[in-house]
Structure formats: C-alpha cells, structure tokens
Design brief:
Elements (H helix, E strand, L loop, with lengths): L2 H20 L5 H13 L4 H8 L5 H9 L3
Helix pairs in contact: 1-2, 1-3, 2-4
C-alpha cells in the first residue's frame, strides 16, 4: 500500500480525531499518537474511528487503540 492510499484511508480518522482534539477530549499528544498509529495501520481505520466514537477518556482510548496492533 502506498502512502497516498494510506492517507486516503486514514483521512476518515483525521477528521474525527481533529474534532476530539479541538474539543479537548483528547490532548494534542494523544492525538499525535493516534494519528501515527493510524498511518502505520491504515487497515484499522474503521476500528480506530469506532473507538473514538465511544467517548472514553484519553487513557482508555489510547489503550484500546494500542491493543489493535
């Protein structure tokens, strides 16, 4: 999978993640960790979006996303 395909797939995560960071639900650092994970594992974009949609606190969100690896 080339970088363009990865960006397209992870783009769906980017918009939701941006909202979570702007609203203060996730810190900038947490958002960067999630974004890096999404770029490394674009096939997990739907699962990441589902986790972000759960409205968990940041630590729980990061833990669930890291378990996807």
């Amino acid at each position: 999978m080339d970088m363009k395909e990865k960006r397209e797939i992870a783009g769906e995560v980017a918009e939701f993640l941006s909202y979570k960071v702007r609203s203060g639900m996730i810190s900038q650092e947490g958002g960067e960790k999630i974004w890096r994970f999404a770029m490394e594992h674009p096939e997990k974009a739907d699962a990441i979006t589902n986790i972000l949609d759960m409205d968990l606190d940041e630590d729980d969100t990061l833990a669930k996303i890291e378990k996807l690896a």
